[in-house]
Design goal:
This protein is an all-alpha fold. The protein has one domain. Helix content is about 65%, strand content about 0%. The chain is built from ten helices and no strands. The radius of gyration is 14 Å and the shape is globular.
């Protein structure tokens, strides 16, 4: 489990991209948790998980477009979902996938977005690596080899 999913040079941009993507989803859909799950399970995301630079370098709008989701850039903050929590969720999912080289689809099957959203408090107080390790142990994530 010591090999990350892709080169560390992409990691920070993946964190930023996924944060923005989750906020766009919340601002443009009625059920962001369902769309986050669809994103984590889509073929496009699986190519990102494998470290394909063509997919790692796409913008959030391009990613959502590939899923057939029209996106309007709405500047209003989601009133229904806390965008700080969505950003934290993006960090957690991205880190778990990258650090443990796991398919996003398997991660989201074990920790559904609705459940992760509810775990923000108190897990957000832990470092990202400690939070991911706690979740990995609780949900038995990463015991299998996928790639």
């Amino acid at each position: 489990m010591s090999n990350t999913a892709y080169d560390e040079v992409y990691f920070d941009s993946m964190i930023q991209k996924t944060r923005y993507l989750f906020k766009l989803i919340a601002r443009n859909t009625e059920n962001p948790f369902q769309v986050i799950t669809e994103y984590m399970c889509c073929t496009y995301r699986s190519y990102m998980d494998m470290g394909n630079p063509l997919y790692l370098n796409k913008t959030p709008k391009q990613i959502l477009g590939s899923m057939g989701m029209p996106v309007e850039i709405k500047f209003e903050i989601s009133e229904k979902y806390d965008e700080f929590i969505l950003e934290w969720m993006a960090d957690v999912y991205t880190y778990l996938q990258w650090k443990y080289n796991l398919p996003s689809e398997k991660i989201v099957q074990k920790i559904e977005p609705e459940n992760l959203y509810q775990k923000y408090s108190p897990l957000h107080e832990a470092s990202l690596s400690n939070c991911a390790e706690k979740l990995r142990k609780i949900y038995l994530i990463g015991e299998e080899t996928y790639f």
